[in-house]
Specification:
By secondary structure, the chain is an alpha/beta fold. The protein contains five helices and three strands; from the N terminus they run αβααββαα. The chain has one domain. The radius of gyration is 22 Å and the shape is elongated.
């Protein structure tokens, strides 16, 4: 009986975890072709490296990826392309080209 009680006590935390609601993970995404255009029309590509953490923080995302071919319902995709274009100081001509790519 004592062994059974110990087993039941050990299962309580596992049951609590199993019933806890899933937390949504926000993932920033961007349109690769848009960045390619911005890259070729901007001398600031090297300056983009420090932009990733800043943009991720501003967009409130845990990570930024180019492609997200699949994600379950706990993942919310946030397009950060415009933020990246802002960082690259993309002019209106570049933004017009980018809009044509989407």
């Amino acid at each position: 009986m004592k062994l059974l009680n110990l087993a039941a006590i050990a299962l309580i935390p596992a049951l609590a975890v199993a019933q806890a609601p899933a937390q949504t993970v926000r993932v920033g995404t961007f349109h690769k072709a848009s960045l390619v255009v911005a890259f070729y029309r901007s001398p600031l590509w090297a300056a983009l490296a420090p932009a990733w953490p800043e943009i991720a923080k501003k967009a409130r995302v845990a990570m930024i990826v180019a492609d997200l071919p699949y994600a379950d319902s706990s993942v919310q995709s946030i397009d950060v392309t415009e933020m990246l274009l802002d960082w690259l100081k993309a002019d209106e001509r570049t933004r017009t080209i980018v809009r044509g790519l989407k």
